[in-house]
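Dissemination and training. As part of the outreach component of the grant, students in the summer workshop were shown how a complex can be specified as a set of sequence lines and then modelled as a single object. The example used during the hands-on session is reproduced here so that future cohorts can follow it. Participants entered these lines:
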Amino acid sequence: MSEPAATASPTTGATATSTPGVATATSTPGVATATSTPGVSATSTAATRVAPLERADAEFFAAARLRAARLQPYLATAVFALVPVASSGLGTFAVDRYWRVYVDVAVAREWGVEQSAAVLVHEAHHVLRQHHSRALACGVTVDTHDLWNLAADAAINDDLLDDRLPLPDGVLPRHLGLAPRGLEEEYYAELLDEASEHPHDTCGSGSGGAPADCEIVEEPEESGRDGLDDVDAEAVRRATAHDVTAAASRGECASPGLVLWARDLLHPQVPWRHLLRTALGRPVREVTGEAHADWTRPDRRADAREDFPRPGNRYHAPDIAVVIDTSASMDRPLLDAAVTEINGLLRRNGVRSLVVLTCDVESARPQRVRRLGDLVLRGGGGTDMRVGIAAAAACRPQPSVVVVLTDGETPWPSAAPARTSIVAVVIGPHAPLPEGPGFTSVRITGPT
Ligand SMILES: [Zn+2]
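and obtained this result:
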C-alpha cells in the first residue's frame, strides 16, 4: 500500500481485537504460520526490524487475514498463502515476489482490522497478478519502478473500489488523470509519457516496485515455509482463479478486472486471427500458390538439357470451398470478422472466385461468388454441418480444402472426406473443437 500511513484511522488495536470473528481467528490454520515463520532471517536496517510476529501481533494479523478472506471469499486461498513478516518501522505493508508480506503491526493496529484486511487483499493482488514479472517484461528499471508501482496500485485499487473494500485512502486512476478499468501496462506507459513526479511509497518487490528496505534477500527454502516458490505461487494463482470464476458465475460480487484476470489465467488468449492464418495458410498455399511438378507437360527449356528429362510446372486452379453455418445461434459480428479475415487471406493467395455453401439443418446450396462479403446470409434453425461438408466434397472440381464456419453446435463427420482437408472455424467460446483425420480446428472468441 502506498498512502495508508498518512491517513491512519483512529481505530485502535484494542477495539479491533474485540471485533466478532477474532475469537475464531486464533484457531485458524493461518495463525500457526503467523506465529512461527521459520527461516525468517533477522536482516534489518537502521529504521526497520524484521522478525517473526510476536504472539499478540500474530493474533491481530490472523484477525485481519480472516476478515480479508471474508471480504473476498474467492481470494481466501491467496490471502492465507501470504507469509507474514513483522517489519516494525516500515510504516505500511509491502510484499515480495515470494508472497512474504511485510507488516508494520503498529500501523496496522492504527488502521484496525477492517482496513488492515483491505490492505492485505491489496498486497495479495500484487502477487496474484504477477506484478514483479510483468514489471520486468515492461522493461521497468530502478529509475522507473516507482512509476510501475503507482500504475499497479491504481489498477488494483480501481478493482477493489468496485467491491467497496474499506481501503485506507489509496491512489486511484483518476488521481493520476488516468481512465478507470485500465491495465497496469497502459497506466505505466501513460505515466512514463507524462514524466511528472508522483511521490509514492513502495509496495515492495512483489509489486514490481523498489524492494522495501526490510525485505529478506534469501529465496524460500525448499520446504516453502518462509515463502512461496514459483511452482507453489502458480498453484495458488490457479486455485484463486477458479474460485473467482465460480464466484462470478454465482453472481457474487467480483470486480470485472478480477474476473478478466481469472479468465486470462485459466484460458490464455492467443489472437484468433493469427491462429486462423496459420490453420488456413498452409493448405491454401499448397493448393494455390505453389507450382506442382507436372510430368504430363515437358519443361519448355528441356531442349537445352539433353541429359535428363524435366517436368513442367502447373499452377493448380484454386479449389477451395467455404461452408457457412446459417443457424440462428451464430454470433454475427464474429462471423463477419472471420469472413473478412478468410476473404483477405484467400485473395492474397490468388483465389479469384470461391464456392460457398450456406448450410443449416438440411440445405446446402453451392454458389460461386467473387467475394465472401457479397453473400447474404439468412438464419435458419438447427445445424448439421455434415450436410454442408458432404455437399462441398461433391462439388466438381472437388475442393482440396473446405473451410467450415460454425458455432460448433453441430455433429461432425469422424474424418474429412477423401482428398479433402477441413479447416473448422468454431465461433464462440463453448462448443468443443472437432478432431479427426484431415481436420484442423481453430476457435474465434473475441474481437481481436
Ligand atoms: Zn500496492
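The first helix runs from residue 13 to 16. Students were then asked to discuss how this feature might be tested experimentally.
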